[in-house]
Amino acid sequence: MNDEIQQRLKWIKLYQETNNAGLVCLRCGISRPTLRKWWSRYQEQGLDGLKSLSKKPHSSPNQKMSPELEAKILVLRKSRNLGARRIQSELLRNEQIKLGLATIHKVLKKHQVDPIVIYRRKPDFKRYSKPIPGERVQMDTCKIAPNLYQYTAIDDCTRYRVLRLYKRRSATNTIDFVESVIEEMPFPIQRFQTDRGTEFFAEKVQKLLMRYKIKFRPNKPASPHLNGKVERSQKTDKAEFYATVDLESEDIHEQLSEWQHYYNWERPHSAHNGNTPIERYFEVSEQTPFSDEIEGFYQADHERVQLSNYRRDLEIAKLKRSL
Question: In this protein, which residues make up the domain named Integrase catalytic (predicted)?
């Protein structure tokens, strides 16, 4: 007989001797409902009725986890190397299943899943972020499949993005994409930053930016880290979007548009402490200058058509300055 049963048995015996519930409660420091409960159980079951019962419910109708859902979590982790937060986003976006991070961690721990592979940045690369929306928009292209290329533009401050798919990289497609970015970004753009892809250096592309009074600022050669935000976001596209869709689908462009909206309006971003890009924009919207102010910053005399050949472009610039 354990201590709990012995204590409750003392209450019962004292009550049997005195037949005074108030006296028993006063001496033993218990309430009348407590005495009433154990007296009732003792009468029905004897000493067995004084044992503590399990508080675990007989059934859990609201329990969300199931073997099928566990399997989905494990597939997302093992096949796509997604962390708990990304698994949470994928289940919500594709399955309309809302789970807490603790629940997902519990499943991963239960199945002893290996930690995700983390690729560390070089220590000499310092993380930065522009304070004003539109101050710098990184633009890049990546090959998704044969004859299928994604153009990506991401704002350095808010991480707000615009995405498009084209059959090839070309100046014509770049112009079409730039027009889309200017139209869809919720703030005016001051400069575009790109790598040295020839699709960005076409004269008609740069002339278009000059007409819109947007600065063209390509990176130096062998400097992919300077375009790190757009590079990283394209990696996210491949892991979280293209891994879940049929690239030959007729509505692939519509699906990409839905993914773009989800990324900008619903997907939590670790760089913003879990806020979405649009929420970050609302936080700093009052600091964002209007279009007429930005046009005033633009100095047309300082802009020129640049060449994709970096060394040749530097030589020409030096000659112009010496004249």
Answer: 129-285
Supply the pLDDT for residue 174. 97
Relative to beta strand 161-166, strand 191-194 is: unpaired
- Is residue 257 scored above 90 in pLDDT? yes
Q: Report the pLDDT value the prediction gives residue 128, as an integer from 0 to 100.
A: 67
Confidence tier at 125 by pLDDT (50, 70, 90): low
Q: How far apart are CA 208 and CA 203, in angstroms?
A: 9
Query: How is residue 284 written in tokens?
Result: 């700093």
Contact by Cβ (8 Å): 85, 101: yes
Return the CATH fold of 137-322. Nucleotidyltransferase; domain 5 (3.30.420)
Burial class (CB in 10 A: 0-12, 13-18, 19+), 219: middle
155, 244, 103, 56 alpha-carbon torsion, rounded to 10°: 150
pTM of the complete model? 0.69
Cβ partners under 8 Å of residue 52, min gap 6 = 4
Burial class (CB in 10 A: 0-12, 13-18, 19+), 119: exposed
Q: Which residues contact 157 (CB under 8 A, 6 or more apart)?
A: 129, 130, 131, 132, 133, 134, 135, 136, 280, 284
Q: Cα 297 to chain center, whole Å?
A: 34
Reference 169, options 182, 146, 153, 151; nearest CA is 151
From CA 86, how far away is CA 117, in angstroms rounded?
14
Distance CA 92, CA 77 (A): 15
- The half-sphere exposure of 26 on its side-chain side, counting CA atoms within 13 A, is 5
